[in-house]
């Protein structure tokens, strides 16, 4: 749901007392393995139920006051986010940041005139001012036939526990020690010459969406991450790469050693990169890049682009957009899923639903406003999608892991990084800077850089030869690597 949080953060520079406690140049390593930090349960009282009650009571009260002020409909989105972010570099603390963000947004409707206002302050005076501003805006806006709350019959009635709440009892010193351990694991590899630092992030969020239909939806979730960026090489050639892990529960993290090894291996593998001559070749998108390719599909079939007639997939519902063996399904109820939820940003119940079925675009991605603009119904996607699962498969019926996908590629380009914004959703033209590896006979031959890959998204989607089983779980778009039959590779 839409939020307008104000960051209330305390920052410490590298001169933080935590750095001084360790002494200049010294690196502290915890006596316990990394799992000791990520598996222990919270030792502090969980106040999320009380915070949710407080937000729900506030939302109900503001909606009553909005109706008393003349609003025919009203909706409120309120949230409280807390977190700890620590960054270390070369064994020393760079930043420690504690955050507590509050967001409160109100939308009122006077008939079909809409007004919205928000604040990051939950005190009564600020809430009253927000209410007055929203009502004043609505009284002066033009009527919009598509404005209004979602259909009351579509409101979610069941709120299953999707296992999204896993507070991480991590104090600042432990976070620093864990970051140092991750960085040390990466820097221990021969050939790694420098570090851009390791990060440890812990986050908790509680939120409420309520509207004048009587709907009150409560959500709470945690999201934690670890990351490391390294540098390899010398004055004649340097390369940088990284790795990260993002989870709902810290018990699901890869180990500090594994993350450091992964970041180092990726960085070292890019040394002595070459440019390619311009050519046409098949292209294999690594899983973390392939999800961006699916993201372009999502953007092209989303309501905002469609009702503005700014999509190359306009009027394509019920038509083939991908090979006949491909299926893409939305799964909102995946346990611990990155985007799991029982309702969307308007309170509409989510449901398992095909987006692409046997290559055919089964539906669009719509909230209530865009659906009304198009004469359709909401698909429960106000605020975005809820876990897209791209089913593994291939034109010949096979299912391959990453090694099998390389073999299927044969000779061509493996893309592990893209850059630039060269994607036109109106025409489908795709042209982006890229880096990765040239593959020959199913084996990685050498790294490549400073190239551009180009095609049209319509041709790329129809030209997908295979989707791997090597799914990257760190995103709400769950896809393995994707093999496209032909693209232009521009180099020297």
UniProtKB/TrEMBL annotation:
<dbReference type="InterPro" id="IPR035068">
    <property type="entry name" value="TldD/PmbA_N"/>
</dbReference>
<dbReference type="GO" id="GO:0008237">
    <property type="term" value="F:metallopeptidase activity"/>
</dbReference>
<protein>
    <submittedName>
        <fullName>Metalloprotease PmbA</fullName>
    </submittedName>
</protein>
<dbReference type="InterPro" id="IPR036059">
    <property type="entry name" value="TldD/PmbA_sf"/>
</dbReference>
<feature type="domain" description="Metalloprotease TldD/E central">
    <location>
        <begin position="166"/>
        <end position="271"/>
    </location>
</feature>
<feature type="domain" description="Metalloprotease TldD/E N-terminal">
    <location>
        <begin position="74"/>
        <end position="138"/>
    </location>
</feature>
<dbReference type="Pfam" id="PF19289">
    <property type="entry name" value="PmbA_TldD_3rd"/>
</dbReference>
<keyword id="KW-0482">Metalloprotease</keyword>
<dbReference type="GO" id="GO:0006508">
    <property type="term" value="P:proteolysis"/>
</dbReference>
<comment type="similarity">
    <text>Belongs to the peptidase U62 family.</text>
</comment>
<feature type="domain" description="Metalloprotease TldD/E C-terminal">
    <location>
        <begin position="279"/>
        <end position="491"/>
    </location>
</feature>
<keyword id="KW-0645">Protease</keyword>
<keyword id="KW-0378">Hydrolase</keyword>
<dbReference type="InterPro" id="IPR045569">
    <property type="entry name" value="Metalloprtase-TldD/E_C"/>
</dbReference>
<dbReference type="InterPro" id="IPR002510">
    <property type="entry name" value="Metalloprtase-TldD/E_N"/>
</dbReference>
<dbReference type="GO" id="GO:0005829">
    <property type="term" value="C:cytosol"/>
</dbReference>
<dbReference type="InterPro" id="IPR045570">
    <property type="entry name" value="Metalloprtase-TldD/E_cen_dom"/>
</dbReference>
<dbReference type="Pfam" id="PF19290">
    <property type="entry name" value="PmbA_TldD_2nd"/>
</dbReference>
<dbReference type="InterPro" id="IPR047657">
    <property type="entry name" value="PmbA"/>
</dbReference>
<dbReference type="Pfam" id="PF01523">
    <property type="entry name" value="PmbA_TldD_1st"/>
</dbReference>
């Amino acid at each position: 749901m839409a939020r307008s949080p104000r960051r209330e953060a305390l920052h410490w520079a590298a001169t933080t007392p935590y750095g001084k406690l360790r002494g200049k140049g010294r690196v502290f390593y915890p006596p316990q393995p990394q799992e000791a930090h990520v598996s222990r349960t919270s030792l502090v009282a969980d106040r999320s139920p009380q915070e949710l009650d407080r937000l729900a009571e506030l939302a109900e009260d503001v909606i009553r006051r909005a109706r008393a002020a003349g609003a025919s409909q009203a909706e409120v989105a309120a949230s409280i986010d807390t977190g700890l972010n620590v960054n270390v570099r070369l064994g020393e603390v760079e930043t420690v940041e504690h955050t507590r963000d509050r967001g409160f947004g109100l939308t009122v409707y006077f008939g079909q005139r809409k007004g919205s206002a928000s604040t990051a302050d939950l005190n009564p005076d600020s809430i009253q001012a927000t209410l007055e501003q929203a009502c004043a805006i609505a009284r002066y806006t033009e009527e919009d036939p598509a404005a209004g709350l979602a259909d009351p019959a579509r409101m979610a009635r069941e709120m299953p526990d999707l296992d999204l709440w896993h507070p991480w009892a991590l104090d600042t010193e432990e976070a620093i020690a864990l970051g140092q351990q991750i960085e040390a694991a990466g820097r221990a590899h021969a050939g790694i010459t420098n570090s851009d630092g390791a990060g440890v992030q812990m986050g908790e969020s509680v939120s409420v969406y309520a509207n004048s239909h009587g709907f009150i939806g409560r959500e709470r979730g945690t999201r934690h991450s670890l990351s490391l960026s390294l540098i390899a090489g010398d004055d004649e050639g340097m390369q940088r790469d990284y790795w990260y892990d993002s989870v709902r529960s810290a018990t699901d993290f890869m180990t500090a050693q594994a993350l450091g090894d992964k970041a180092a291996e990726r960085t070292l593998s890019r040394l002595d990169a070459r440019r390619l001559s311009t050519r046409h070749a098949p292209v294999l998108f690594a899983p973390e890049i392939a999800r961006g390719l699916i993201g372009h599909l999502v953007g092209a079939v989303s309501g905002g682009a469609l009702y503005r007639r700014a999509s190359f997939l306009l009027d394509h519902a019920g038509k083939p957009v991908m090979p006949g063996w491909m299926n893409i399904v939305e799964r909102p109820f995946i346990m611990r899923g990155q985007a799991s939820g029982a309702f969307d940003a308007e309170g509409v119940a989510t449901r398992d639903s095909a987006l692409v079925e046997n290559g055919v675009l089964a539906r669009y991605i719509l909230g209530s406003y865009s659906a009304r603009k198009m004469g359709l119904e909401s698909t429960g996607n106000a605020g975005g999608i809820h876990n897209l699962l791209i089913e593994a498969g291939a034109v010949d019926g096979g299912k391959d892991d990453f090694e099998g996908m390389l073999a299927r590629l044969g000779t061509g380009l493996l893309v592990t990084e893209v850059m630039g914004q060269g994607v036109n959703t109106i025409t489908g033209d795709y042209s982006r800077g890229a880096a990765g590896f040239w593959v020959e006979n199913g084996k990685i031959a050498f790294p490549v850089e400073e190239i551009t890959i180009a095609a049209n998204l319509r041709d790329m989607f129809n030209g997908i030869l295979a989707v791997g089983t090597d799914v990257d779980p760190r995103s709400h778009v769950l896809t393995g690597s994707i093999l496209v039959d032909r693209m232009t590779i521009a180099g020297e």
